[in-house]
Write a structure and sequence with these properties.
26% of the residues lie in helices and 20% in strands. The chain contains three helices and six strands; from the N terminus they run E-E-E-E-H-E-H-E-H. Helix 1 packs across helix 2.
């Protein structure tokens, strides 16, 4: 772990077990924070008009068991672990006013005890002021 790690956050870090197929990649994370259920179900969809020799499946990331859902939470498990490992106490992120990424980052970082700073953009100046 990095020197100067913010001690109360240390307990959130879990060693990341790299899958065999990923070991050839560069910059493999060392740590992960478990923010959601690891395995969510994959369901087959029966859609009209799909050829008989074709199937459609959907990964149910709406069932992560977390207060926020979707694929954004999965990347944050690594990004926030890296921030904590580096001793960060604050997280800065940016996006549109209704960005799922910004909302998910704000919730997850706050739950971990990190201070959150959001840079929000909008084409509508009046609406941007309402969020300030």
């Amino acid at each position: 772990m990095s020197k100067g790690l913010y001690t109360p956050l240390r307990s959130f870090l879990k060693p990341f077990a790299v899958p065999e197929w990923a070991k050839i990649l560069k910059d493999i994370p060392i740590w992960k924070i478990e923010l959601c259920m690891k395995n969510t179900p994959i369901h087959e969809w029966h859609l009209p008009g799909i050829p008989d020799n074709f199937t459609v499946h959907i990964k149910r990331d709406d069932m992560t068991g977390c207060s926020v859902s979707g694929n954004k939470i999965r990347k944050l498990e690594f990004l926030l672990a890296d921030a904590i490992d580096k001793g960060c106490k604050h997280v800065i992120t940016c996006g549109g006013i209704q960005s799922n990424h910004v909302r998910t980052t704000a919730i997850a970082a706050t739950q971990l005890g990190l201070k959150v700073h959001l840079v929000l953009r909008s084409m509508d100046v009046q609406k941007a002021e309402e969020y300030a």
